[in-house]
Specification:
The chain has helices at about 5-25, 35-45, 45-50, 55-70, 70-80, 85-114. By secondary structure, the protein is mainly α.
């Protein structure tokens, strides 16, 4: 899979599942929308990824790593509460972020080899 497609998938998952998680939790803090905001930013940069803009690619990878790290605490909280749906939502967001990072790394390696 191309990096821009993996990033597009990741951004959509962050937006949809992030909003779902925010709306589903009682008294959710505004910080629950951070994955949504980062997903929107990543989505807005997708055209630059498709055009293979190196600067945009590096910014998107950085944002993806930030969102991945930021999802660690919500995952721990969901595990502590034994919230299966919450674990699934956060796990999917983390999984697509890991896959997007993997595709970026493979793309960077392939471009470096050329």
């Amino acid at each position: 899979m191309k990096a821009h497609k993996a990033s597009l998938t990741n951004s959509l998952v962050l937006i949809i599942f992030g909003l779902w998680g925010y709306l589903d939790s009682e008294g959710a803090a505004i910080t629950a929308l951070i994955p949504v905001v980062l997903g929107v930013l990543i989505l807005l940069m997708n055209k630059g990824l498709k055009n293979e803009n190196k600067t945009i690619s590096h910014i998107v990878v950085l944002l993806t790593v930030i969102v991945l790290g930021g999802l660690a605490m919500p995952l721990m909280r969901r595990l502590g509460e034994n919230d299966i749906m919450g674990i699934t939502r956060v796990g999917l967001m983390m999984g697509t972020s890991i896959f997007a990072i993997y595709t970026f790394v493979m793309s960077f390696i392939a471009n470096r080899s050329k």
